[in-house]
Amino acid sequence: MHARPLHARPRPRRPRRPSTLLALALGLIAPTLVLTATPGHTADSLLSQGRPAASSSDEDASFPPARAFDGNTSTRWASAEGVDPQWLRVDLGRSAAVSRVRLTWEAAYARAYRIQVSPDGSSWTDVYSTSSGDGAVDDLSVSGTGRYVRMYGTGRGTPYGYSLYEMEVYGSTGGSTPGPSPTPTAGGPRVPFGGHTIPYASGMLRPGGSQAALDQKVVDHYRKWKAAFVRQNCGNGWYQVISPDADHPYVAEAQGYGMVIAATMAGADPDAKKIFDGLLKYVLAHPSSITPGLLAAEQDASCKSVNGGDSATDGDLDVAYGLLLADRQWGSSGTYDYKRLAIRHINAIKAGELNPTTKLLKLGDWSSSGGEHYWISRPSDWMIDHFRAFRKATGDATWDTVRANHQNLIASMQSKYAPGTGLLPDFVVDTNGGARPAPGEVLESTNDGDFWWNACRVPWRIANDAVTSGDAGSLAAARKLNAWIKARTGGDPGRIVAGYRLDGGALADYTSPAFLAPFAVAAMTDPGSQAWLDALWNRMLATPVSTDSYYAASIQLQVMITVTGNHWVP
To answer: For this UniProt entry, which segments traverse the membrane (predicted)?
Structure first.
């Protein structure tokens, strides 16, 4: 372990390359891990896609009922105009336990309708009813059994007819009990996972396949991630995200990831709010020893803060962002006032982790004026979408300056030090003038000036803002990264290695999801990269969750959330 300055924390990742024998063993074991299901649990399946469909009427031959079950959100079914009632029906082929129905409406939506199931297509049982539909996407938890499922519209929301881009029916066949449904319940989250109510910027790509199938892959990965890393090891009603590959069992970065993930997966996981609140309770119980509004960076196996008890900027940024997500999801009138806590945390970041001169992020609140690390910043902390959310939540124009300064530094670093690759280093020094990559070890390793185990997150962080905001600077930075890695690998994701010099020279001959996955978000920004994005997505799907690497698994899960259209800015 190299010497560290007072209050500097050892970073949670310096993974060692597995030996050839270990890698082979993991390769042999992985298929078993992927294919073995938990006893007694069957995940809900999409049952309706491509199944025979019928309707009460069609507007014309261009809008037949089959179009609502083809997995293509650019086609639709439409009924005759101006007539009530109307219905759309699908034949599942055999009796099924139906747990979820998802309706994606065109502008001609139903104000009043029912979801019904039937064993024979003639006698119907209501499993859902509303008289206050408002269009867009209705993602419904239901419970019923039948071979046929239909939407029965009794009151139009417009003078026209009824029109659905997609009607998706989920459940299980053979009489088995459906597993947990990735849907909201009444009074549940306002932005449920899979709802896709907050669109991305125009022109952003997504992997091929139906939206429902993409969403389900994320839910599957989330369940494995949750089983591997979400714990209640220290009592007190706390939840923690455990970090077996870090220097300590619990690190701030992991708790921040957990809070963002839990709030985003609300609707897919009925326990999301309970987990989020347990993580928040843990965070509030472990304040930084320097800035009480921030989170102490590391805790030991007994959940006691160690190594000075000071903060780490990356974890705090995600904690604050997660609180804003929670306020949007569940409101702030319950046990915790998420909005108040978010603003308090954002203001503490400004006071303890933002350099007041440069308006660039410091490494943590332990970096003080006159110290050797005061003019150092970490590019993987430059979370542009977070800065936008902080500005909106607080009304503080400082965050506009913070965003602009970091975006300008990204452009400058790419232009001066990585014109052919767009890569950024783990650490940038001399931020008070003439900012440049770390000349060697300044905090963690001799690779501090390379695209290494911190900077591997940069393509994801930059492109998260590009896809959600369409900002020209973020798009340019993300596209530069995408163009280089696609060319460097010849379009083969398996050739992405775990580390590069800024000129593109490889620093390793092995790969990791921590390096591979983030480039998928950058690929979304390039209209000519559909095949490349599909290849990256398929590679992620073929990569099992490694239970000894929360870091790689957490990055990949958050990337999968973004590339399927489920990341949003509160």
So the answer is: none
Mean per-residue pLDDT over the chain, rounded:
89
Q: What is the pLDDT of residue 175?
A: 38
Query: Of 172, 202, 220, which closes a domain?
Result: 172
Based on the fold, state whether residues 364 and 469 are members of the same structural domain: yes
What pLDDT is recorded for position 174?
Answer: 57
**Does one domain contain both 220 and 163?**
no
Per-residue pLDDT at 62: 84
Q: Are residues 293 and 420 located together in one domain of the fold?
A: yes
What per-residue string of b and e applies to 446-474 under the rule 16 or more CB within 10 Å gives b?
ebbbbbbbbbbbbbbbbbbbbbbbebebb
Range of the domain at 470: 211-564
Burial class (CB in 10 A: 0-12, 13-18, 19+), 497: middle
Residues 124 and 233 in one domain: no
Query: What's residue 181's pLDDT?
Result: 33
Same domain, 72 and 125: yes
CB 422 within 8 A of CB 480: yes
CATH number at residue 125: 2.60.120.260
Apex 70 CA angle, 51 and 146, nearest 5: 30
Residues 89 and 226 in one domain: no
- Return all residues near 135 (Cβ < 8 A) that are at least 6 apart: 105, 107, 109, 157
How many contiguous H segments (helices) and E segments (strands) does the chain have? Answer: 14, 14
pLDDT of 42:
36
Residues 153 and 282 in one domain: no
Give the pLDDT score at 478. Answer: 98
Return the pLDDT at 121.
Answer: 85
Question: Are residues 58 and 108 in contact, defined by beta-carbon separation less than 8 angstroms?
Answer: no
| C-alpha 195: how far from chain center | 14
Strand-strand pairing, 436-437 and 428-429: antiparallel
In this structure, are 156 and 279 located in the same domain? no
As a whole number of angstroms, the distance between CA 249 and CA 474 comes to 34
Question: Which residue stretches of 331-367 are H helix?
Answer: 338-352
- List, by residue number, the catalytic residues: 253, 314
Spans of the chain below 70 pLDDT: 1-43, 174-187
Is the overall model pTM greater than 0.85, yes or no?
Answer: no
Within 8 A by CB and 6+ apart from 39, the residues are none
